[in-house]
Amino acid sequence: MNNRQKAGSGRIPPKKGGKSFGADRSAAFRKPLPDPAANRQSASASACPYAQRCGGCTMSHIPYPEQLRQKQQAVTKLLGHLCRVEPIIGMDDPLHYRSKVHAVIATGRDKQPISGVYARGTHHVVPVRGCLIEDPRADAIIQTIVGMLPRYKLRIYNENTHRGFLRHVLVRTGQHTDQVMVVLVATASEFPGGKAFVAELLEKHPEICTIVLNVNQRETSMVLGTRDVILFGPGYLEDELCGKRFRISPQSFYQVNARQTEVLYRTAIDCAGLTGTETLLDAYCGTGTIGLCAADQVRQLIGVELNADAVRDAKENARLNQVTNARFFCDDAGRFMVKMAKDGLPLDVLMMDPPRAGSDEKFLSSVLTLRPKTVVYVSCNPKTLARDAAVLVKGGYRIDRAIPVDMFPNTPHCEMVMRFCL
C-alpha cells in the first residue's frame, strides 16, 4: 500500500436470486485465525521492496496471522467496554486484492517517464512495479502505458510548473467479470495521437473493455477531474457482488477489495436478520450496493444519499438487476428519517455505512427519533464507531453483535459490523 487512496493512505459471489444470508449462515464467514505455518503469503508480503518508502503497507513485514491478532486486540480495546467483540474475519489470501490501482506519472532522474506512488506525506514519487496488494493485471497495463509514452511524445505533467499532459493512470478491474477499465487523467481533452495510442494499448492488452480520458485541469491534489471523454468502449465496467451486478464508472465509489466486500456485506445482511417482510433503509447508500444485495430479502428497500450522481447510479444498478422493490432518494439521511417519523412511516431495519468521520449528532438523533427495531452499522473507522455506538446505547439501544472484518490486509485498517437492537 501507499499514498493512493488505500484505506486512509495509498495510491491515490453466489448465483443471482432470492438466496438467504440469514443468521444460520454466519458461521460460514467466521473463519478462525489462519495457521501461521500454513500461511504462505506472509513471507511474500514481507519481501515488498517498497514498504519502507511508499508508507502504505505498514504491516507488510508482519506475518498475516499476527496482523489479525493485532487488529483484534486494537478493536477490542476500543469497543470491549461496550460489547463482546467476535473473532476477526480474515482473508484466505491477503495479497493482490486491490481492484482499483492509481499510479502517478512522473519523470525520473534520467528524464524517462516513471509510474509510482507518493511517499507518505510528500509529493515525491516512489517508482513502484509489482505492488504485492494490487491486481497484477493493472500493474502490467500501467507499465505498458509508461513504456509507450516516449514514442508518442506525450508530455508528463509537472506539479511545480502546472504544465504537461498526462497526470495519472487509474485502472479498475472486475473481480468476477474480469472486465478492465483504464482511465488516463490528463490536463486537456485533446489527445495528440490518441487513436493510435488507444489502438496499440488494446492490441497489447485485449482484456481492456473501456478506456476513458478524464480531464483534470485543477492545480490541486485531487486525482480526477469532473469531465470524462470515452476513447473506447462503454465508459464503464461491470462487476458482481453477492449475485448482483453493478456498473462502475471512473467517478463511482466501489469497494477496492471485492473478494472481502462480499464477506463484509453478507455479514451485515446476516446481522439484519431479514425475513422478507421488512422495510430496510440504506442510509449513506452511495450507489446502492449494500441495499441492493439485500433487496431479495426485504419487502421494501429505501436508499438515501446526498450525492446526486451516486443516486443516479443506484437507480441504474436497480434497473440492471431488475430490482423492483427499491426506491432511492437524493436527500440528507437524517432529515429523511425525521420526515419518516413525522409521517408515521414504519422502519424495521436501518443499514448505515458512513464515511471515516462516522455519523453526526443530527443523524444519530434522527435514529433515536424513528427508532428502527434493528440498526446495522458498517464502519470503516472503529474509533468513530465507538463514539457513535455510545450515543445509540445511551438512547436505549443494546449492542448484541460486533464483528471485525479485515478489508485491507497489510495495513492497520479494519472494518466493523455492529448490530444494535431495542
Descriptive overview:
This protein has about 425 residues and is α/β, with parallel strands linked by helices. It folds into two domains: about 15-95 and about 255-420, Rossmann fold (3-Layer(aba) Sandwich); about 100-245, OB fold (Dihydrolipoamide Acetyltransferase, E2P). The chain is about 30% helix and about 25% strand. The chain contains eleven helices and 18 strands. It has helices spanning about 40-45, 50-55, 65-80, 135-150, 195-205, 260-270, 290-295, 310-320, 335-340, 360-370, 380-395, and strands spanning about 5, 10, 100-105, 115-120, 125, 165-175, 180-185, 210-215, 225-230, 235-240, 245-250, 280-285, 300-305, 325-330, 350, 375-380, 400-405, 415-420. A seven-stranded mixed β-sheet has the order 5-4-3-6-7-8-9. A seven-stranded mixed β-sheet has the order 14-13-12-15-16-18-17, with helices on both faces. A two-stranded antiparallel ribbon has the order 1-2. Strand 6 and strand 7 form a beta hairpin. Helix 9 (about 335-340) packs parallel to helix 10. The two termini are about 40 Å apart. The relative contact order is 0.14. Residues about 1-45 have low confidence and may be disordered.
